[in-house]
Structure formats: C-alpha cells, structure tokens
Specification:
Elements: E1 13-14, H1 18-29, E2 34-41, E3 44-51, E4 67-68, H2 73-86, H3 96-99, E5 105-106, E6 109-110, H4 116-121, H5 138-144, H6 151-159, H7 176-189, H8 193-202, E7 227-228, E8 236-237, E9 253-254, H9 256-267, H10 274-280, E10 284-286, E11 291-293, E12 298-301, E13 307-315, E14 318-325, E15 330-336, H11 342-357
Parallel strand pairs: 1-3
Antiparallel strand pairs: 2-3, 2-15, 4-9, 5-6, 7-8, 10-11, 11-12, 12-13, 13-14, 14-15
Helix pairs in contact: 1-11, 2-7, 2-8, 2-10, 6-7
C-alpha cells in the first residue's frame, strides 16, 4: 500500500469569509434544519454553521459535527480497491466471477462478463439494491432501524430486480456495485471492508471524526440529529440507523473537516500511485448526475471554467456535497440535516462551486 504523509499536518489558520457564511445561511433559508460547511486551502480553513442541532431546540450545529456521508462513501471504497490494484493483488479487468463465484448470475446478468472497473464506474448494468423499509416510511423506519443486512442479502435482493434502462447506454448508478466491491475487498485481503477502510485511509490520514461503523446504529461524538419527512411536512428524527444496508456504498460517518482532509489527500496523490489516480479520474458521461463519473468520483463542471472532483452523499436525513480542485489545493464540503428539496440541493452545489472557483480569484 502506498500512503505518504497525511498532507494537512500544519495547524490550519482560520480566516473570515462573509461569503461562506452568507451561502450557509441561504441554504438554511431553503428549509434545512441545520447546515454546516468548511473550506480548506493552502493551510487555511473557513467554516460556517446555521440552524440548530435539533428541531425545537436552541443548541447550534456542532463544530466538526459528525454525520452519515452517504454515497461519498463510494470514494473511500474505490480508493481501497485502487490501492489493491497498485499492489498487484487485483486488476480492474478482473471479473466479478473470479472473486465472487456465482454471486452475480441470472436475470440477464453474468458475473464472468462484468469487471471490477465496471463496478466502480457504474457500467455493470447490475440493478440497484431495493430501498429498505427503514428508508421508505416512518413506520418502516421505526420497525426496522436496527435491522442488520448482510452484503450477500443485499446483492440477492438487487439481483431479483429488473435492470432499468439508462440514459446513457452502459451507465447506470447502482449501490449494488459498491456492495460487491466491499465483498471483493474482503476476498482479496481476508479482512472486512470496514477494517481495510480504517487501516488504509482513516488511520493514515488521522481522520479522527471518521468511522466505517459496520452495524453500529449510533453516531459517536458531537453530531446534529437528522430528520426525514417521508412525504409529509412532519420531520421524523432518523439519527439512529443500522448502516449495514449501505456497506461499501454509503455507511461511512465523517465530518466536513475530515472529508476535506480525505479529498485533499486523494487528489494530491497521497493515497495511491499516479497510474491508479489517473484511472480514478478518467470519466464517462453520466447525465443523470449532471456530471461525468470515474471510479468512485464524479467530475463536475465549474461555473468559472474547468471542473472539480467530488461526490454527493445522502443517507436518511443527512445530505452532503464534497468536492476538490483537480490538484487538491482547495476543497469544500457542506452537509444538511434534513432533505428540504431541490432548492436546498441547488444551494449546496452552488456553495461548492463558488468556493472552489474562489481558488482562481
């Protein structure tokens, strides 16, 4: 495994920016319960928070609060796979069948024709995992928030689903791809996905607010509560959740500070060899995302020209956007504690865009 220094070893110097605060307050006005954002650049950082840690309370959003990062987890999983590629222990051209015999078969799918690269790139054609009851309704959440899923159980459920047509032939976003990637990591290393993420990323980068929690349903340390409406105007507290339904694809817990540290180190080349980083950042069109997609990373156009790399994440009430410039010299992340709709999403993406464009001003 090739891991250099943690990168952000110097003490960051806080700087003041009314722009970031104004953007965070604008996101809060769209209806989000709480908002927190942080931007890092060349040894400095700026952060801003708005809203409260709980509905009906006055306690503000916590500094360096932890939250479920959802699908931004996919970047962590892809990083581990690409480290294993760099060590010669697996190839991106290996098939799923080579590592997981018989797991992807039937319903028009053949694991011997699907590669590891296609899993990470979402070009496998494998259907998504069905939405678990805990994510569908308030009653489902209350009944199944502590339910534990195994990776094989998730894949079996996905394999029973009909493949959905993609807007781009060959490209279709599916969490199942990353559940399978987590299973392959175990087969290659003999150790769990959680252990590999911890030992290869979390510990070397000193990500003190970050964890791959397995089946643990609580968020340790300071955190704001998450809320889901389930199609109504009433916010249900959904902070407690067994995250095994999203192993490899969405279960990591982190903070804006740690996400920035991770994405900075990744794009600066501190987590893998240049050949593997080139593979990760080589993208295909993914218009369903309004972006293009590499291996666990989306490439998004900047309004000021050029592009940045990052990932959106959502898992039941927590929504995040994190992104970094191509060289990893400026990184921005933001999260909210309730999904307030398209205006919230738009304001979050605008924050990341404007803060990364600020690197050029």
């Amino acid at each position: 495994m090739l891991v250099a220094s943690t990168g952000l070893t110097a003490v960051a110097k806080p700087v003041q920016s009314n722009s970031l605060r104004q953007q965070v307050e604008a996101i809060h006005r769209t209806g989000a319960v709480g908002v927190s954002a942080e931007v890092t650049s060349s040894g400095s950082h700026d952060s801003a928070r708005a809203g409260t840690a709980r509905i009906g309370a006055t306690k503000p959003m916590p500094e360096n609060g932890r939250f479920r990062i959802g699908s931004a987890t996919k970047t962590f999983t892809a990083t581990v796979v690409l480290q294993l590629v760099g060590e010669g222990r697996i190839s991106l051209d290996d098939t799923v069948e080579q590592w997981l015999p018989g797991v992807v078969q039937g319903n028009g799918l053949d694991g011997s024709r699907i590669t590891v690269r296609q899993l990470l790139q979402h070009t496998s054609g494998i259907p998504d995992v069905p939405v678990p009851p805990a994510l569908r309704s308030a009653d489902g959440y209350r009944a199944e928030r502590f339910r534990t899923y195994t990776p094989r159980e998730l894949v079996r459920a996905a394999m029973r689903q009909p493949a959905e047509p993609s807007e781009v032939p060959g490209w279709s976003y599916s969490n199942t791809n990353y559940v399978l990637a987590a299973m392959i990591i175990r087969e290659v290393t003999g150790r769990s996905w959680q252990r590999e993420v911890h030992d290869r990323i979390i510990r070397p980068l000193a990500l003190r607010d970050t964890a791959a929690p397995g089946t643990f349903p609580f968020i340790p340390g300071p955190h704001a509560h998450a809320y889901a409406g389930f199609g109504t105007d009433t916010g249900v507290d959904v902070t407690t959740l067994d995250p095994s339904m999203a192993v490899g694809s969405g279960s990591v817990i982190s903070s804006t500070r740690d996400l920035n540290r991770f994405y900075t180190a990744l794009l600066a080349g501190r987590l893998m060899r240049p050949e593997q980083l080139d593979e990760m950042t080589t993208t295909v069109s993914a218009p369903g995302l309004g972006a293009s997609y590499g291996l666990g990373l989306a490439e998004i156009r900047l309004s000021c020209g050029g592009s940045y790399f990052g990932h959106r994440g959502e898992l039941l009430g927590y929504v995040t956007w994190a992104g970094t410039t191509r060289e990893g010299d400026r990184t921005a992340s933001v999260y909210v504690t309730s999904h307030a709709g398209q205006d919230t999403e738009k304001s979050m993406t605008e924050l990341v865009d404007q803060q990364l464009c600020g690197a050029r001003s």
